[in-house]
Design goal:
Layout (H helix, E strand, L loop, with lengths): L3 E6 L4 E7 L37 E2 L4 H15 L7 E7 L3 E3 L6 E9 L9 E5 L4 E4 L4 E4 L11 E6 L8 E5 L11 E4 L9 E3 L1 E4 L12 E6 L4 E3 L2 E3 L4 E6 L5 E3 L2 E3 L6 E4 L5 E3 L4
Parallel strand pairs: 2-3, 4-6, 5-7, 6-8, 6-9, 7-10, 8-11, 9-12, 10-13, 11-14, 12-15, 13-16, 14-17, 15-18, 16-19, 17-20, 18-21, 19-22
Antiparallel strand pairs: 1-2
């Protein structure tokens, strides 16, 4: 019975199969057609992944590495790879959308969302359902922090996921071995437009890095800002799950806030907070 050797591309999880046998010619000729998907069974093994077999491509015994490189080269030509991670960082001063098609995003430096002029305009960062944002160590996402970036003014974040499979939004660490406090977290400043800003079906995890200063907070921090936070999760923070200060009065509903090193919700001069139906 012929022996089949499989080669797998991690990006698409597609297998190419080589069949042992005599080489047809010294040119390693390959025809342009691909045989339709078929199943191969080997005695003693479970049902295998469906394969496609390049007709006319054969490998001599003992020549698997060369043949493997050849099949990978062919798959690179025939099967296009998906989008790669997009690196982002620095100020956002105009309306910007992070799309699922370009996900994941890698944040390589602090991002502050705020308009470039104090003229009543608002810079809005919109994150689509299904987007994953990964933060490098020492970075964070800041909304409306004119106090930290004096040349930026009103900003807003609209992160509206869904409860469908793959529809949630994820803000997390870019580390291979993730730990609480890997990145600073998501922070809303006093120049946040709270009438626009919201998080719905968003998971924020492994943030809350301690800075030892004013911005020490949690996975999500609010400084005189009141975004709506619903159906979301704040997990594995290096400090608090949610930090509220200076009259911040967000509505926090149907959220899960767990496994954080300090408090689930820490409130400092924030008497107007609405907390409904959460698991803390």
């Amino acid at each position: 019975m012929p022996h089949f050797t499989s080669y797998r591309l991690r990006k698409r999880n597609v297998c190419g199969t080589l069949r042992e046998g005599n080489m047809q010619s010294q040119r390693h000729r390959m025809v342009n057609r691909l045989v339709s998907f078929s199943e191969n069974r080997i005695p003693g093994e479970q049902r295998r992944t469906q394969h496609f077999i390049p007709r006319g491509l054969r490998a001599r015994p003992g020549h698997y590495p060369v043949a493997g490189l050849f099949i990978v080269w062919m798959l690179l030509v025939v099967v296009p790879f998906g989008a790669y991670a997009l690196e982002v960082g620095g100020p956002i001063t105009t309306n910007t959308t992070w799309t699922k098609a370009n996900s994941p995003y890698i944040v390589t430096s602090d991002i502050n969302v705020g308009a470039a002029a104090d003229d009543g305009s608002v810079a809005i960062l919109t994150i689509e359902p299904g987007v994953e944002v990964r933060f490098m160590p020492g970075t964070g996402l800041y909304i409306g922090h004119h106090d930290k970036w004096s040349d930026q003014y009103q900003g807003a974040l609209v992160a509206r996921g869904t409860d469908q499979e793959g529809g949630g939004i994820l803000l997390t660490s870019n580390a291979a071995d993730k730990n609480p406090g890997d990145w600073y977290g998501l922070s809303f400043g006093s120049s946040t437009d709270s009438t626009i800003s919201l998080l719905d079906y968003v998971m924020v995890q492994y943030g809350g890095a301690s800075t030892g200063g004013y911005y020490e907070g949690g996975n999500i921090s609010c400084f005189s800002a009141s975004p709506a936070i619903t159906n979301s999760k704040m997990l594995n923070s290096g400090s608090n799950g949610l930090y509220l200060q200076n009259s911040s009065a967000p509505r926090i509903a149907n959220c899960t806030i767990q496994n954080n090193r300090l408090c689930g919700i820490y409130m400092d001069s924030a008497p107007g907070v609405t907390i409904v139906g959460n698991t803390i």
